[in-house]
Amino acid sequence: MQEHFMKVERTARYHVVGQPENAREIWVVVHGYGQLARYFLNHFAAFAKDRCIVAPEGLSRFYLDPAHSRVGATWMTREDRLHEIEDHIAYLDQLAKELAYKSAPGAPINVLGFSQGVATVSRWATQGTTPIKRLVLWAGSLPPELGLDILRTWQHMRVDMVLGDQDQYANKETLEAIAQRMRSAGVPYRTHMFQGGHQLDALTLQRIIPSG
């Protein structure tokens, strides 16, 4: 048996609140495993007054329950992972170019990744071509392949790291491990803890998004 690969064109879906033409900044918010972009974006609608907030959806969808009544999306699995990483980085870069074309000159692009989205946006920030001003890593881990030499390319960004104190998938040790990598690479960062589990928190979002 021989394994082969080929490039094919496919359609990606994303959802938007706010108008890029009038936005002072663009936020690309990347959902976690098993979520859909339109529901994830609901958490950010209150911040769209003078911003454009865009939620791209993972390229692979699947049923979440035996009755096939609920659908979620994922950014990648371990199967053929390198091509899946390459595909979602190219997808996010293409989306950012479209947003830049529509938005006011000089409007910065900020990025938030939640859960599995943390690894997705971290790889995008290091392997993509999109200039990112701010990066928010919420309830997830950095990919292990991002060494200090790679992370030093983040020194121009401001990084926020967020975790709930009852998160069942990550803990304070996870947060501190990421913070240590940031310090070692000389990346400016802030950490935020809130009372809650593996979820977005409205009050913490209010502290992060309006600032800067």
What features would you describe in this structure?
By secondary structure, this protein is of the alpha/beta class. It has a single domain (14-208), classed as Rossmann fold (3-Layer(aba) Sandwich). The protein contains 6 helices and 9 strands. The protein has a 7-stranded mixed β-sheet with strand order 1-3-2-6-7-8-9. Strands 4-5 form a two-stranded antiparallel sheet. Helix 2 crosses helix 3. The N and C termini lie far apart (55 Å).
Spatial shape: globular
Number of helical segments?
6
Total number of domains: 1
Question: Strand portion, in percent?
Answer: 15-25%
CATH architecture: 3-Layer(aba) Sandwich
Strand order of the largest sheet: 1-3-2-6-7-8-9
Key terms for this structure?
single chain; 7-stranded mixed sheet; alpha/beta; 23% strand; 6 helices; 30% helix; 9 strands; 212 residues; Rossmann fold; two-stranded antiparallel ribbon
What's the layout of helices and strands?
Elements (H helix, E strand, L loop, with lengths): L13 E4 L7 E6 L6 H5 L9 E6 L3 E4 L7 E4 L6 H22 L6 E6 L1 H12 L6 E5 L9 H4 L6 E7 L7 H14 L3 E6 L7 H7 L4
Parallel strand pairs: 2-3, 2-6, 6-7, 7-8, 8-9
Antiparallel strand pairs: 1-3, 4-5
Question: Could you give a quick summary of the protein structure above?
Answer:
The chain has one domain (14-208): Rossmann fold. It is built from six helices and nine strands. The protein has helices at 37-41, 81-102, 116-127, 148-151, 172-185, 202-208; strands spanning 14-17, 25-30, 51-56, 60-63, 71-74, 109-114, 134-138, 158-164, 189-194.
